[in-house]
Write a structure and sequence with these properties.
The complex is a heterodimer of chains A (309) and B (438).
Chain A (H helix, E strand, L loop, with lengths): L24 H34 L2 E2 L5 E2 L3 H8 L1 H32 L6 H13 L2 H12 L5 H8 L7 H4 L1 H26 L3 H9 L4 H12 L1 H16 L3 H7 L10 H10 L4 H28 L5
Helix pairs in contact in A: 1-14, 2-14, 3-8, 3-11, 4-8, 5-12, 8-11, 8-12, 9-10, 11-14, 13-14
Chain B lengths: L7 H24 L22 E7 L5 H14 L2 E7 L1 H14 L5 E4 L3 H8 L6 H11 L8 H4 L2 E2 L2 E2 L1 E3 L3 E2 L1 E5 H7 L7 H11 L5 E4 L8 H6 L3 E4 L4 E4 L1 H16 L15 H7 L3 E6 L4 H7 L5 E4 L9 E4 L2 E3 L7 H11 L2 H11 L6 H5 L1 H4 L2 H9 L3 E2 L3 H4 L4 H18 L4 H17 L1
Parallel strand pairs in B: 1-2, 1-3, 9-12, 14-16
Antiparallel strand pairs in B: 3-15, 4-5, 6-15, 7-14, 8-12, 8-13, 10-11
Classes of the chains: A mainly alpha (309), B alpha/beta (438).
């Protein structure tokens, strides 16, 4: 006799491999989460991971179409290539200088504009504007300003009775570092301002009551409590410094004589001037590894130095 | 009728379905391969006709003349196509083109700055135009009506891969007013050049302005008898001592004699033109592309054009653009018809009248528009001894790295950094031979 039941019929439990599709409550939540993540996975997969996989594959090939297998030849060549060593050195100096400069100048500006000054909002906005401007526009702007014959800066020096300068010839790397800092310190200043405003005033008041000088308060309270911001700024600055391209492409063309041949600009030339996409892919992947190593080291060292009061 | 309100589960199901479809569509689309030509494609038959669709042309941003607009309109009407006339600066055009080659979706026709035709013929990315030349050459006057040197620079293994569109050369442009005031005549060799430059230098004016672009250093090398590449000896910049002397002469103009400012590294080659226009330089070496900017910015400047200097020989750099058809272009027949139309003599003359551009047809040189214009005629005289510097080097397939990177470094090292030419040249030769051997 057929057993009569009330309520909805029970679903038959799936066994074996199909069991994973059984819609238990937890599994439904997991599937729901994955469903929401699929667009993000699709976007990152198509736009980032597939190109990265393609670059890794190409790095083992050679020829104009990067379709001839070359094994590890591109990698061994990279370690022996004097122009790669030069561009890496140039980029390392550029990255270190822009990182240190962004932190020091950005923090100094943030400390200054954290004071109750008249018009500080205007100053903050003015300092942020270069960061909001495209590197191409900034590059062209400074190229014209720095032009030794027709540039406004030398005209100013002449009017002041000072000798004219040719910065892009005499100090090309320092010049593009300075232009980069001019462009980026506004952003780091904003980050440090946010960090400064997150430090409770009581700490400073307590330290003042205990007789700490402003310098001591800065070293013992402000700087340690800004460690997370400093870590974030330094990681981002190192990454953008090692990936800088527009400064060389727009301002100096990598010259004179490769003095400003930034790594990504060098890779670009290998790919689109020499048409060696395999070698360019290997160089790109090597930079990726270098950036990962730098970032991991920074995160480990930075987090070790974080403090909480 | 009851309205079904979607449940949360429905929404989740639709979201998941949509996301899966979004992920699958491009993947499935990519598996479908290249689109087949449909009935609306621009593929030409024997009559070269089309029946709608786009015809993509990559062009230099500075060469989009009104004279060409008229040709494009007639071409569109004749074939029922829409020309997508895309304009780029040379560097951007190359980046775009190489990306297109990698993706397989290429334009129908490309204007190139000189040198790419042979490079892409060697790599298999340009289509041979020989069959079109064989059938239509006599009618359009090719190659008989083209300057002879423009044929070899666009050929590979005996077949024509490109047709010269513009033909230019570098000459010595000078400020006649300054020359008259100083009581000097245009120089004819390096010695007289230096004398004149020294007399014209002073009071905020330089006798000469060198260009930061290394291509502008080549007239000096050619005048000293230097050739970029000798296929017999496989040597670069031969003879070496003449190359070193030519480079050192240029460096000395800036660092020893002070008759030229030290060029500033960059990507802009208009610096000397701006100095000449501003009355800050008395002489520059450049091509006809600077005539229009000079006329626009300094209409009162009395501009003279002198023949190239004579040292070991009289020589200068030949330049100019060509047209080629990518190997995977979908409408080579139409592209050839476009080439025929845009290189017609009347179009060349119209472009010259409009923009001062120089052209490769021999009949163009004889045209009254050219003969009656002192400046065009002066440049046209240079065609007789102008040399395509890197033609033989290009045939090695290694010109990109040597010409664009190593030679640029050599030029900048000597002219900007004042490194002794022999020392910098040794480094160039060592690196260059390594590239040639690779």
């Amino acid at each position: 006799m057929r057993q009569l039941t009330t309520g909805p019929p029970r679903r038959r439990r799936l066994r074996g491999p199909l069991a994973v599709f059984a819609p238990s409550l937890n599994r439904r939540y997991v599937l729901t989460a994955y469903a929401f993540l699929i667009p993000a996975f699709a976007f990152f997969g198509l736009m980032f991971y597939l190109p990265i996989a393609n670059i890794i594959t190409n790095s083992f090939n050679t020829g104009p179409q990067a379709n001839q297998f070359a094994g590890l030849e591109n990698y061994t060549r990279a370690f022996e290539d004097a122009s790669v060593q030069n561009s890496f050195t140039v980029t390392f100096i550029f990255g270190a200088a822009t990182t240190i400069g962004a932190i020091v100048i950005g923090l100094a500006l943030a400390l200054l504009l954290n004071q109750p000054l008249r018009g500080r909002v205007v100053f903050r906005a003015a300092l942020l504007v270069p960061y909001l401007t495209s590197v191409a526009i900034v590059g062209l702007l400074w190229r014209n300003i720095l032009d030794p014959q027709l540039g406004i800066l030398n005209r100013l020096l002449m009017d002041l009775g000072l000798p004219t300068q040719s910065w892009l010839n005499t100090h090309p790397l320092a010049t593009i570092i300075a232009v980069t800092l001019w462009m980026t310190v506004g952003y780091t200043m904003v980050l440090f301002l946010a960090g400064l405003q997150g430090i409770p005033e009581q700490y400073h008041e307590a330290a003042t009551v205990d007789g700490a000088s402003p310098w001591q308060r800065f070293w013992r309270i402000t700087l340690p409590l800004l460690a997370p911001t400093t870590l974030f700024v330094s990681v981002m600055a190192v990454i953008s410094g090692l990936q800088a391209f527009g400064q060389a492409y727009i301002i100096t063309g990598g010259g004179p004589a490769n003095a400003t041949d930034l790594y990504i600009f060098h890779v670009f030339n290998v790919a689109f001037t020499s048409r060696d996409f395999g070698y360019a892919s290997a160089l790109s992947f090597l930079l990726f590894i270098v950036i990962v190593i730098f970032t991991v080291i920074q995160l480990r060292v930075g987090r070790r130095n974080e403090v909480q009061y | 009728m009851a309205i079904h309100t979607p449940t949360r589960r429905d929404l989740l199901r639709w979201t998941g379905g949509g996301a899966l479809a979004g992920l699958a569509a491009p993947l499935l689309g990519s598996c479908a391969g290249a689109p087949e030509e449909d009935s609306g494609s621009t593929s030409g038959g024997d009559d070269g006709g089309g029946s709608g669709g786009d015809f993509t042309v990559y062009w230099n941003a500075g060469h989009a003349y009104a004279a060409y607009d008229k040709v494009i309109a007639e071409f569109e009407e004749a074939h029922g196509v829409t020309v997508s006339f895309q304009k780029y600066q040379w560097d951007d055009l190359r980046t775009r083109l190489l990306s297109d080659f990698a993706s397989g979706t290429v334009p129908d026709l490309v204007e190139e700055p000189g040198g790419w035709v042979q490079e892409f013929a060697i790599s298999g990315d340009a289509v041979s135009l020989q069959q079109y030349v064989d059938s239509d050459g006599a009618e359009m006057g090719f190659p008989d009506d083209w300057q002879p040197r423009t044929i070899s620079r666009n050929s590979y293994e005996g077949e024509v891969y490109g047709i010269q569109l513009h033909l230019t050369c570098m000459m010595l442009l000078y400020n006649r007013g300054m020359f008259d005031s100083a009581g000097v005549q245009p120089p004819t060799d390096w010695g007289s050049f230096l004398d004149v430059a020294e007399k014209l230098t002073g009071d905020g004016v330089h006798g000469f302005a060198m260009n930061q672009d290394d291509g502008y250093g080549w007239p000096w090398l050619l005048q000293n008898g230097v050739r970029y590449y000798d296929p017999d000896t496989k040597g670069l910049l031969v003879p070496h001592d003449a190359a070193a002397a030519a480079l050192q002469f240029q460096a000395d103009m800036a660092h020893k004699h002070g008759v030229s400012p030290v060029p500033t590294p960059g990507t802009d080659y208009s610096g000397p033109q701006k100095l000449l226009s501003a009355g800050r330089a008395a002489m520059i070496i450049t091509g006809p592309w600077d005539l229009l900017p000079i006329a626009e910015t300094s209409p009162d400047l009395d501009l003279g054009i002198a023949p190239a200097l004579h040292e070991a020989e009289q020589s200068t750099v030949q330049a100019g653009t060509s047209l080629f058809v990518p190997a995977k272009a979908k409408s080579p027949d139409l592209a050839w018809d476009f080439i025929k139309r845009i290189t017609a003599l009347e179009v060349e003359v119209a472009a010259t009248k409009e923009a001062g551009m120089l052209m490769p047809r021999l009949s163009w040189v004889q045209d009254p528009v050219v003969q009656e214009n002192e400046r065009y005629a002066a440049f046209a005289e240079g065609f007789a001894y102008a040399v395509d510097t890197s033609e033989k080097l290009r045939l090695t397939g290694k010109s990109g790295e040597i010409n664009e990177q190593l030679f640029q470094t050599l030029y900048q090292d000597v002219v900007m950094n004042n490194t002794p030419a022999t020392e910098a040249l040794d480094r160039f030769l060592a690196a260059g031979q390594k590239v040639l051997a690779s």
